[in-house]
Automatic annotation (TrEMBL):
Residues 25-379 form the FAD dependent oxidoreductase domain. Gene3D superfamilies: Alpha-glycerophosphate oxidase, cap domain, D-Amino Acid Oxidase, subunit A, domain 2, FAD/NAD(P)-binding domain. This is Glycerol-3-phosphate dehydrogenase/oxidase. Residues 415-504 form the Alpha-glycerophosphate oxidase C-terminal domain. The lineage of its organism: Bacteria, Thermotogati, Deinococcota, Deinococci, Deinococcales.
């Protein structure tokens, strides 16, 4: 289902709807993968849904992934077969439901020792089997020449060949915006830049929340039959609004990625290193004509809205990449570096974060607050289904079947081979955007984006700030942080025109964006 472009401001419409005097069936707090998945699940069942996001959709972890829709090869090595099977099933569904956002990608595990290819080959055949009829393509052995044909910059010395397997790739923040549009198409309401500042309790039960509209400073109360806390690494903050003494659920872990030019991986496959020096998996993945390399696993004492890569994390990634790539990227080659936090559920004392489960967890407090956390993008739909099942039962809502396993997401269309890569993510909306002013005017010579996309972000996708546009509606911040800083004044001028902002607002936006984006640049 698609909608025609609107000239009105969609956030103003959402704020008006959010503040009407009614009781929602579900109030969802959090606009990342888990919150949007839950809201779409509820709306497609016909429940009245309001979602509140404190910053912007996918502002946190949900825009900072390795860009993979995958079963989790390393979870198979850990023996978590059920998680892998579920994730592979969801991977297949997501490819069917969002073909404009998800595509197959070959991953090469290079073999430099005689035993490596058969060892990993056996495990990846199990990976194929667990995917069942939704498997993408069968894994297979490739010899040295075939490996170098797919990944020409792979180090040649002592290379024996490798195993090629297939997983899915996507654009995480664009999937979040697609879910936002899907939610709206099915009658749900979502509002960004609207932090929840307190929960409403009546008779010992949580019956709603108070939120602040960041643009006006006004606070509003909303009521709901059930409240879902889907705030990722910040779920404990919301849980403390109900009970300040509640024990924390999470052990946050930071994952860092660096982004470099495509010349470092010019073939048609990604590289997967199955075991790095610290026991993790490392990927080098082609993405939007660049290469994303990561990730790390660094335990952190507390979560932050804008996490920063530690110098040793960047060095670890570059050092590991240099063991496999020739030429290998250096610090001078890094276009952007970004960090995301994983909401890992606490385990026994002494357990390292890379060993913690990636399963999602649902907990219901004495006051009825439903907390959803853990999980990953690949299983967002299943997380939403499980949560809405629990929420409907708790709130006494009419039982309705889940429809999302076969739900085509907003803009769903088969990829158009004639479209430039960055237009694909819009699906059927691309034609509407290309009809807007500025469709042929680049924002920056080193970025693929146009001025029309900024107008669309404001008119149809609730973009409110330069960061909203350059980081998540477009992916400029992750692809080339310096170029995005240079593009910020023009982006802000277009936003000001679309949203009716003055020159002082523009100046403040540019300054705020420069400060934020400087943290993505390696000095």
């Amino acid at each position: 289902m698609t909608t025609q472009p609107r000239i009105t401001d969609p956030r103003t419409d959402a704020l008006r709807a959010a503040t009407t005097d009614q009781t929602w069936d579900l109030l969802v707090i959090g606009g990342g993968a888990s919150g949007l998945g839950t809201a779409v699940e509820a709306a497609t069942r016909g429940y009245r849904v309001l979602l509140l996001e404190s910053h912007d959709y996918a502002k946190g972890t949900s825009s900072r992934s390795t860009k993979l829709v995958h079963g989790g090869v390393r979870y198979l090595a850990q023996g978590n077969v059920s998680l892998v099977r579920e994730a592979l099933h969801e991977r297949g569904l997501l490819k069917q439901n969002a073909p404009h956002l998800v595509h197959d990608l070959g991953f090469l595990i290079a073999a430099y020792k005689w035993w490596a290819a058969p060892f990993y080959g056996i495990g990846l055949k199990m990976y194929d089997l667990l995917a069942g009829k939704l498997n993408l393509k069968a894994s297979r052995y490739v010899n040295k020449a075939q490996a170098l044909e797919r990944t020409p910059t792979l180090k040649k010395q002592a290379l024996k060949g490798g195993i090629l397997y297939f997983d899915g790739q996507f654009d995480d923040a664009r999937l979040a915006i697609t879910l936002l549009r899907t939610l709206e198409n099915h009658g749900g309401v979502a509002l960004n830049h609207a932090p929840v500042v307190g929960l409403i309790r009546e008779g010992g039960k949580i019956t709603g929340a108070r939120f602040r509209d960041q643009e006006t400073g006004q606070e509003h109360a909303v009521h709901a039959r059930t409240v879902v806390n889907a705030t990722g690494v910040f779920v404990d903050d919301v849980r403390r609004m109900e009970n300040p003494a509640v024990k924390p659920m999470l052990s946050p872990s930071q994952g860092v990625h660096v982004v470099v030019d495509r010349r470092f991986l010019p073939g048609d496959s990604a590289i997967m290193v199955p075991r790095t020096d610290d026991g993790r998996v490392l990927f080098a993945v082609p993405w939007h004509d660049h290469v994303v390399i990561g990730t790390t696993d660094t335990p952190l004492p507390e979560a932050s809205v804008e996490p920063r890569a530690l110098p040793e994390e960047v060095e670890f990634i570059l050092k590991t990449a240099a063991q496999y790539l020739d030429p290998a990227p250096t610090r001078a080659d890094v276009r952007s570096v970004y960090a995301g936090l994983r909401p890992l559920v606490k385990a026994a004392e002494g357990t390292d974060t890379k060993s913690l489960s990636r399963d999602h967890v649902i907990r219901i407090s004495d006051g009825g607050l439903i907390t959803l956390t853990g999980g990953k993008w690949t299983t967002y739909r299943r997380m939403g289904e499980d949560t809405v099942n629990r929420a409907a039962a708790q709130a006494g809502l009419p039982q309705r079947l889940s429809l999302t396993a076969g739900l085509k997401l907003h803009g769903a269309a088969a990829p158009d081979t004639h479209q430039a890569d960055h237009w694909q993510v819009y699906g059927t909306d691309a034609a509407h955007i290309q009809a807007l002013p500025g469709a042929d005017t680049p924002l920056h010579p080193e970025l693929p984006y146009t001025e029309a996309e900024v107008r669309w972000a404001a008119r149809a996708e609730q973009a409110r700030t330069a960061e909203d546009v350059l980081s998540r509606r477009l992916r400029a911040l992750l692809l080339n942080a310096r170029a995005s800083i240079e593009a910020a004044p023009r982006v802000t001028a277009i936003l000001a025109e679309e949203l009716g902002r003055d020159a002082a607002w523009q100046d403040a936006q540019v300054q705020a964006y420069r400060e934020l984006a400087s943290g993505y640049v390696l000095n």
